[in-house]
């Protein structure tokens, strides 16, 4: 089920390794890879369960790219052909007309041997996959798709702060974003101990940093916050139990819990999150570490809208810009998949 680096590649290996995105063409303003930025030409394929895809969901909302780059949401449960569009009528994506994301991969490259991963951007006219390079996709949203940004869109990757943003993101990736996966798919005690220690060591450092400042870099929301958010928002629901990162829960860490609630309550963050998809995907797909596929009842999802008081630290969430408008009706996450607060 769901072969690939996220699903099964870690099992039985000495060390969990994340395989590189294979399709790294870029969609740019000048179209140098043959894929120019163009409203309505591409389709963003995600799973709301996936932290890497969720970066793209948040960034797309903050920048107001919903109309320019329409969305396909895959079923959180992959089958042996991977991501599928079983949430759509007749099990087909209504625009691409395909049942499996792998069909877009096949159109791009026949006999591609790697995993079929999200996020993915597909060229609608040709039905071909353009990119599954999740590290690049959101940076390009911020810097290449500018002509299609909404009015008041924030600068998520400000030039003057890029060096620091890149440094923070690299540390967060190694110890937190990917660290939880290394802990979860560890093949032995030693590997688990090292990964888990790294997760909590880095979270402690981040909490110290965030006790003094509202956001990770500068005084506005940047790409670095998006990347930390998508892991933190899953922490208590899946990483604490399923991946055994259980030294403490996020909700027990005053600073990180307040930081997470602050972002969650910011338009464009919490409104992309689907806890039902997250929990069912992790607990039901990773049968190597949860053979029964039982999805636990917790955690208690109350309290996400409680006051966080982070505004007392200052900060200007959108800089000189403004918050995004409401979620397009067709993209709203069902109320029963979200905290009742
Ligand atoms: N494949 C990307 C990361 C994205 C990723 O791992 N996505 C997961 C979902 S959270 C996925 O689609 N896994 C299925 C697979 O790779 O076969 C990479 O280059 O590391």
UniProtKB/TrEMBL annotation:
GO terms for cellular component: cytoplasm. Keywords: Transferase. The keyword Transferase applies. The record marks 239, 282 as: Lowers pKa of active site Cys. Residues 306-341 are annotated as: Disordered. PROSITE patterns: GST_CTER. Residues 155-285 form the GST C-terminal domain. The keyword Transferase applies. It comes from the Bacteria. The active site is at 50 (nucleophile), 181 (proton donor/acceptor). GO terms for molecular function: glutathione transferase activity. Glutathione binds at residue 83. This is Glutathione S-transferase.
